[in-house]
């Protein structure tokens, strides 16, 4: 088993509190990448999930790497597991989820399958996966796993320490290094406030194309196309 060193991260409390106020889809309106495959979906009711990834790459039906990773969870971490294409053997069940919950995890995301879905729904921890299975990993102690390195999650590269943000619609990997994330949050919150008014105006019969400017944009395109 390969253990990669964990890099130090900054204090995220303010950013995470701000993210918790906005819908991921509202923020995603201003992003061009980072969306995790829609095949990885919320399997229990989720309001918001935000935290830093703690990664496990486990291609084998061995539960040992995930159990070791649980001991390394920090408050607010999201346990992220890459099963390397195995969608038959569940690596997360009730006991793993409860251990993660009591360690202060913010959620679990699996590119693979989980089990004990009824019990998982009672714990209060966001759980994302591709589905469920009745076949589970066992404590085998086999070589081949990696902890805290870079993995693939639904086609998106995820490293330990990356910020994940999700709700019932899906999960985003947020790269805050190249953008003014606080400004994007403000834009998204402004959109949500405007939508409160739009709901009332749509109910009164107004056109969405008029409200959002689509009609004016379409007219501009037509006028350009009609120019000789």
Plain-language structure description:
By secondary structure, the chain is of the alpha/beta class. A hairpin with a 2-residue loop joins strand 14 and strand 15 (about 170-175). It is built from 8 helices and 15 strands. The longest helix has 23 residues, at about 180-205. Helix 4 (about 95-100) runs parallel beside helix 5. It has helices at about 15-20, 25-30, 65-70, 95-100, 115-125, 180-205, 210, 215-225; strands at about 1-5, 40, 50-55, 75-80, 90, 105-110, 115, 125-130, 130, 135, 145, 150-155, 155-160, 165, 170-175. It is about 35% helix and about 25% strand. It folds into 2 domains: about 1-180, Ribonuclease E inhibitor RraA/RraA-like (Glucose Oxidase, domain 1); about 180-225.
């Amino acid at each position: 088993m390969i253990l990669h060193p964990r890099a130090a991260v900054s204090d995220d409390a303010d950013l995470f509190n701000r993210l918790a106020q906005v819908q991921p889809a509202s923020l995603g309106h201003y992003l061009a990448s980072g969306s995790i495959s829609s095949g990885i979906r919320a399997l229990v009711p989720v309001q918001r999930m935000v935290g830093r990834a703690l990664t496990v790459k486990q291609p084998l039906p061995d539960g040992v790497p995930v159990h070791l990773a649980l001991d390394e969870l920090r408050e607010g971490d999201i346990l992220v597991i890459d099963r390397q294409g195995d969608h038959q053997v569940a690596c997360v069940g009730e006991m793993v989820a409860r251990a993660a919950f009591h360690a202060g995890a913010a959620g679990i995301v699996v590119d693979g399958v989980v089990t004990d879905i009824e019990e998982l729904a009672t714990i209060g921890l966001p759980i994302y996966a591709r589905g469920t299975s009745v076949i589970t990993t066992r404590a085998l102690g086999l070589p081949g796993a990696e902890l805290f390195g870079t993995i693939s999650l639904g086609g998106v590269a995820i490293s330990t320490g990356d910020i994940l943000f999700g709700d019932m619609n899906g999960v985003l990997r947020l790269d805050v290094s190249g953008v003014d994330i606080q400004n994007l949050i403000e834009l998204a919150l402004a959109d949500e406030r405007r939508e409160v008014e739009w709901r009332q105006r749509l109910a009164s019969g107004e056109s969405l194309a008029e409200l959002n400017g689509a009609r004016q944009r379409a007219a501009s395109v037509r006028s350009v196309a009609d120019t000789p």
